[in-house]
């Protein structure tokens, strides 16, 4: 994708080396066909906005801002002629020869989850490409499996836009994808490609992420337990703007509860009350079960996972405060050290002057 949102990376138009008009026309039609295809158009926000403005028509001058099409031909007349003369295209040209659209009888699929799942069902993950491979080289490789067999090439990229060396091939049919996977060996520049269904790869990555997240959560949980014990957190909800930290503390004080900390989350109209580890929160609520309706705030116990999440956040805030105090302390000591050094240096200079004066007399 280009930075302006126009599709440039996910196409399977293979480079045509011949300069003959017929081959040029074929290349133009294939490239345009991809832009307006079922695999691209539903997800192309730029083109989606364009086709809404003029009954599906898009100016050729606009399409020529797509670098890949412009690299094939930047002549609007040549592009219009190629589409007009195509016999098996889903595209048409308007009477002026200045606009192109997908034919009205070719309905654009809705980009919903069902459609995405269908694409994934006929897509294959491949690994083993050099990270230096260009899009044109990947497209040319895809074209070696037949015309319109691989209908979409999706390179996987780093945040820096660099190619990872892996990609997804979306096939025209699931049967073609199965045949691709069944082949004993497929190489790119003598390097064997690792292949698997995209859905299986996504499941694998999902599990890796969940395992990694679980380890991270366990580490955070262990860290939280150093600061706070579970079972001493209360939730106050449906708060109005008049409720303050002090008013919540006063309610707890009237109930003879020992409060360590109160945090109000205004946007959620919720407050979290962390009690001192004297008596469990559930026991305190049971003791006032007959008085709860009379309280000015609604108190309840949080779900276990919610409690853990809140305590994790409090731990993060606590560590932030501790780290800030440590920095301030170090800075203060550093300044003190500087003053002592300057005073000592001044004293030494004064002593030297006195010695010189004495020697001079």
From TrEMBL:
Residues 18-112 form the HTH La-type RNA-binding domain. One of its GO terms (biological process) is positive regulation of translation. The keyword Nucleus applies. It is found in: Nucleus. Keywords: Coiled coil, Nucleus, RNA-binding. Pfam families: La (PF05383), RRM_1 (PF00076). PROSITE patterns: HTH_LA, RRM. GO terms for cellular component: cytoplasmic stress granule; cytosol; nucleus; ribonucleoprotein complex. Its main location: nucleus. Residues 322-361 are annotated as: Disordered. This is La.
